[in-house]
Amino acid sequence: MPNLDIQKIRKDFPILNQQVYNKPLVYFDNGATTQKPLCVINEEIKIYSHENSNIHRGVHYLSEQLTQRYEDARKVVQKFIKASYDHEVIFTSGTTESINTIAFSFGEKYVNEGDEIIISTLEHHANIVPWQMLCERKKAILKVIPINEKGELLLDEYKKLISPKTKIVAVNQVSNALGTVNDVKTMIDIAHQTNIPVLIDGAQSVQHGKIDVQELDCDFYVFSGHKVYGPNGIGVLYGKEKWLNEMPPFMTGGEMIKKVTFGKTTFNELPFKFEAGTPNYVSAIGLATAIYYIQQLGLENIASYEKELLDYGTKKLQSIDGLKVIGTSENKVSVISFILENIHHFDAGMVIDKMGIAVRTGHHCAEPLMDRLNVEGTIRASFSFYNTKEEIDKLYEAILTVKQMFG
Ligand code: PLP
After folding, report:
1. Phi and psi (nearest 5°) for 221?
2. pTM of the model
């Protein structure tokens, strides 16, 4: 039995308690975005109703109060990922902005013609395109770690890709399309043998278990608030102090400056150097509330219940004739990506939707991975701690219906 009271937890998520197409909603698109608990929703209402004011600028009561709450939210994130200092936590709009910031800012300073950047076959487009663009700007070379048939990175091949020209390694900790958990600790250790910094895309990992950036010793770690039960439009860029101090700012404007004259501008200290303009302070505080919420549930409890769902779902779905699970690593989070023999994933997705079940179909913003796996796309069910085995049974029944209709 799980250590979580799932029925009680579900009451915290009002969106789950509704019908679509006259069927109870089953939400299995948690990899795309997670739903928000009432405490997060109410926090935002409270701020806009009683506390709103631009931060860091005013000397008046509301501004000072909210500035404090924003900076407290930064400390919550710091503790959540176990960063050494709160100024190593930069608020961004999400993983995409965090990676673009690093690719631009780190790239500006350290990447030159002929240098190499290593990413992996498992990456989301957000961790491919910014590096590709950097390579075009700087005439650098993008190298890609290959995978095996199970959807696991080949670490021996990774070692071979590292060269004296390598400037940075950027990989995800968990693949959004397959759910594979990568051994990023080993990858970081390997890169650090020759002092190469490593960026970890944690967009699909922070919501599934404990993260300790000091233990990992990663140089950068990024994630999105909306995938960890927090609000949209907020994300985190963690960077080791020494890198963030050395890197030039990406966006410029208000707040990130110390002194501006028409002749010259000097930049503010960390973390403000990387937070140009009015930050999304409401969502930053909402993110801190979401973090409190999942910490109260317990990240170990979440991980173990989601593993239960993954094992149950995998066994159940694999029993369906003609269903092939794509991504079969033993080390996965609660994501099942699959295809159905002779049935297009869009057709399947549409029928499953009509049963009230939200799954994702397509390439999952990982087109190069789909090419490598020789599939056009997959159907992806991604489970959260608020999902149940009964809901997985409904997905199973829906797939049988799809097979009857198209098989
Ligand atoms: N990286 C991974 C692994 C993802 O799964 C996603 C989103 O699905 C992103 C990056 C981009 O996140 P966002 O759209 O929140 O910026």
Report:
1. -145, 130
2. 0.98
